[in-house]
Amino acid sequence: MTSQDARNTRHSTDNNVSQDSDDNRDTQDSRATQGPRDRELPYDIVLFGAASFVGALTAEYLAAHAPEGVRWAVAGRDTAKLERLRERLAADRPACAGLPLLRADAGDPASLRELAASARVVATTVGPYLTYGQELVAACAEAGTDYLDLSGEPEFVDRMYVRHDARARETGARLLHAAGFDSVPHDLGVRYTVHQLPEDVPLRVDGFVRVHARFSGGTFSSALQQLARGRHMLAAARERRHLEPRPADRTAYAPPGAPRYAGEVGAWALPLPTIDPQVVERSARELPRYGPDFRYRHYAAVRSLPAAVGGVAAAGALLAAAQLPPARRLLSGLVKPGEGPDAARRAESWFSLRYVGEGGGRRVYTEVTGGDPGYGETAKIFAEAALCLALDDLPETAGQVTSAVAMGEALTARLTAAGIGFRVAAVR
What we know:
The chain is an alpha/beta fold. It has helices at residues 3-7, 53-65, 79-92, 109-116, 129-132, 134-143, 154-171, 184-194, 217-228, 230-243, 276-286, 305-322, 325-332, 343-347, 376-391, 403-406, 408-417, and strands at residues 9-11, 17-19, 43-48, 72-76, 101-103, 119-124, 146-149, 174-176, 203-212, 251-253, 260-262, 267-271, 293-302, 350-359, 362-370, 399-400, 421-427. Strands 9, 10, 11, 12, 13, 14, 15 and 17 form an 8-stranded mixed sheet that branches. It has a 7-stranded parallel sheet with strand order 5-4-3-6-7-8-16, sandwiched between helices. A two-stranded antiparallel ribbon has the order 1-2.
């Protein structure tokens, strides 16, 4: 297969490769006439930060599942680590012996611009993103290159919207944050639930999250940073609100719910202040299928009252400790970025996202399920999202987008084929 053939392939849900057609692509004034999807480029996908723990898992997934002819490369600042990664991949899949290694550094904007100019999609695991991610977003927005990260940092996401959404719309770049367990299964799970409900009526959806897993040092470090930057986070959100347009004929909002016993799922429901409800709210504003008046609430589901009380107390203690630099440094040293559990521990981990949706006299119960959310499923979701952006026939979108808006049914089908469950549990 030639490089031109590979550039034009798209991956269908049954893993067959077929020719992509541009006949059904709309032209938009906001898109550049020559973006990465229209030019011949060296790579379809570049994985930046591939030597990190979740980066290596993502590379392993791509090595196993990327269709033949897809041109992908790994990138990072330490070529020796990349070489060791390539050797591990090639031990199981000899074709990976020729996997390209690209040197790029988050502190070297010129190297990031070169990286962005070489690929249709750049997927980065290099966080915390507020510290290490801003220059790569800028480079991709300028080059018209699709960008993916694993950021669950609201301040970073809001600042990137303010600084780069407009330019990305001009160049055709799709900037997609939170493209792992945060927040793809939540975003697509709510979308899936909405599609089981009547159209053109007010809709109400509540999400309940249950997780049995250990999360990475990088995720913990990012969470501590967010807790310590509450005022900065609020300022970034205000700045975004002043710039971001909202639909004139529809409303969509995601207020924090009050703690309660949720009989519909048989658990105590605690408001879960992650980035996920913000992502869902943005999808609902962009997609008319969510109806004229949409509300979403996001909860952690806890089976016992003592566990619920203990969880609230632990969260309060962590918030207080994050405000004190010595305590924050001590906590950061408990689990270092790049560390993670072994394969046996990951195999025991799982997640269950349950949704209760109502509208037009109909109530539906849906569920999204999968394995280890912090590592295995995040790597799977991240890799499939990169493949989806690079290969699939998708709606014409640009700027900062969500998974539901940019990929919707195509990514849902990919994740279903990859073993993540989407199902309707009951209809009343």
